[in-house]
Amino acid sequence: MNPEVKQPPEAAHHISCGKALREQALGRTGVPAPGPPELVAHIAAEIQAHCSHHPLKCHRIATGWTITQAVAAAHQLVETEGLPKVSLSERSWKQWEAGLLPSIGYQDLLCRMFTTHPVALGFAHDYSPQPQRDQDAPLRGHGGPDGKPFAGAHAGETGESGSTEVRATKRRHAVKLASLALTAPTAAAEILQQAADEAMEFTRQAEATTLGSGTLDHLDDAVAAFNRAYSLKPPKDVFDAVMDYRRKVDVLLKGRHTQVQGRELFAFAGWLSELLAWLAHDLGDARTGLAFATDAFVHAQQAGHGQLCAWAMDAAASINLYENRPGKARDAAMKGLLEAPADHPLTVRLHAQAARASAADGDAVGFTTAFRAAENTHQLLPARAPRRFGMDVLPLADYALTSYPATSYIWLGQAENARRHAAQALAIYESAPAASRSPSREAIARIDLALAHALLGAPDDAVALGHQALDSVRVVGSVRARAGDLAALLARRYPRHAAVEGLREHLTATDARLLLPVTSEGEAP
Question: What whole-number distance in Å separates Cα of residue 61 and Cα of residue 203?
Fold first, then answer.
């Protein structure tokens, strides 16, 4: 065989192979793990030469870390050395090990972690003369991972012209390759070499993108920040900021990106739209909220992100309930359950959504069945609750099991059951640590309790609880809607009660003052 024809690289070995090489090296030296940086670098080089992993992955294996441990070590380094805060996730680390180039800031952090330089971690090429290098080989160029230039990557040649050349020659070389059996060995080698060059150009085209190296990390940080701000800042301000980012992601989706990047962008678009759905609901605009819930679901499907599909349908279920469309709310909950992980708190919440949708429709049997499914799922949740953008989602399931039954029993006309569950929910919310208090949820629990008192013939208690709910520091659209239900029930049952008129005036004043609420808990009701 012609020695100039290179054989394809071997597939990367299983990680256990790299771990074995590490153990052997530590055994030979007798140095306790993880060893000094020089030894770690030597082991990483052995793993890379033998196992064909990305250099960053080789350094991680050589250090003895899992990805989870590596991410934790990075955050610890940031805290210990007083570096700028980062939102590094396991997802980002996996992408870097798959070949995605980190931003300059993250490159610096990783080099600090492994006490090395960007070349050693595969983030840059070393173009200094090497004894073993062919002196006739180019020292610069658009190189692939093996340091050789891509076909057509000469000075002044653009990506577009390279792409045109590939299209123009694809059929011609296909015919040549089909006739290899009839070609002399030397000619066949030349054809194969040309095909290898084209393969590298195909690779370059597949990896071509207009996204900056840190764009996806920036979006990850931004979505996490918006989720934290959701319960702390006015919904109108958060809506405007999130909408601005949603438009930017739409522009990025229309630009040039890889398929992997495209799935990431679809997911970010979905998360932003899911957040916009809740914000529109907080602002009292159901039509906009449902439009963004649908948009979130569609983009989540494009991203292949089932859990995000389920979150989008959770928002749609709540919004439809507040619009008195229990059938659509139940349909949304069931659609979400088809996508949600079976052992996730979101599944508990979706079963509870279906339960209160049945209650709103007057279906007591349907409520009991769906709520029992929510309780059974809650009992099977893992000990360690999953997180969403760094936040614990288990309270959302707990909230659904405490507050949703109170509301449901009111709709079913079971006043005593409603009173008991609403009182329990309110006690739980009031006893929560200050940092975890949720004024809007407390307000809704007070309104549920007030509605129960109204049904049980205690209008004064109902009115007092209604005033307390409207005096909440965070009154969102769902709170005002439920307060309106309370005022309407009191007006029907106790039309001559002076205190009832006072509550109606309080509600009118609240609506006039807020119009679009300037402060909000911003949490999913």
Answer: 27
Are residues 34 and 97 both part of a single domain? yes
Instruction: Please report whether residue 454 resides in a domain.
Output: yes
Q: In whole angstroms, what is the distance from residue 148 CA to residue 185 CA?
A: 24
Helices (H), 283-339: 286-303, 306-322, 326-337
Q: Is residue 275 part of a domain?
A: no
Question: CA–CA separation, 113 vs 39, rounded Å?
Answer: 14
- As a dihedral over the C-alpha atoms of residue 52, residue 56, residue 58, residue 60, rounded to 10 degrees, the angle is -150
- Residue the block writes with tokens 């340091």: 147
Q: Which of 79, 96, 114 is the last residue of a domain?
A: 114
Q: What is the extent of the structural domain holding 500? A: 413-525
96 and 188 both lie in a single domain: no
**6 part of a folded domain:** no
Q: Bridge partners of 387?
A: 392
* pTM > 0.85: no
Q: Which of 102, 138, 137, 140 is nearest to 118 (CA)?
A: 102
Cis peptide before 185 (omega within 30 of 0): no
Structure tokens at 241: 């900021």
Q: Do 358 and 370 touch, CB atoms closer than 8 A? A: yes
- Dump pLDDT digits (tens) for 27-52: 777 667 777 888 899 899 989 988 88
- Listed in sequence order, the residues at least 6 apart from 232 whose beta carbon sits closer than 8 Å to its beta carbon are 522
Structural domains counted in the chain? 3
C-alpha 449/C-alpha 430 separation (Å) is: 14
Domain ends where: 53, 87, 114?
Answer: 114
Query: What confidence tens digit (pLDDT) does each residue in 397-406 have?
Result: 888 898 899 9
Q: What is the DSSP letter of 194?
A: H
Q: Cα-atom radius of gyration of the chain, to the nearest Å? A: 30
- Whether 28 maps to a domain, the answer reads yes
Using alpha carbons only, what angle is made at residue 310 by residues 409 and 266, rounded to the nearest 5 degrees?
Answer: 150
Q: Smallest Cα–Cα separation from 525: which of 448, 415, 452, 462?
A: 448
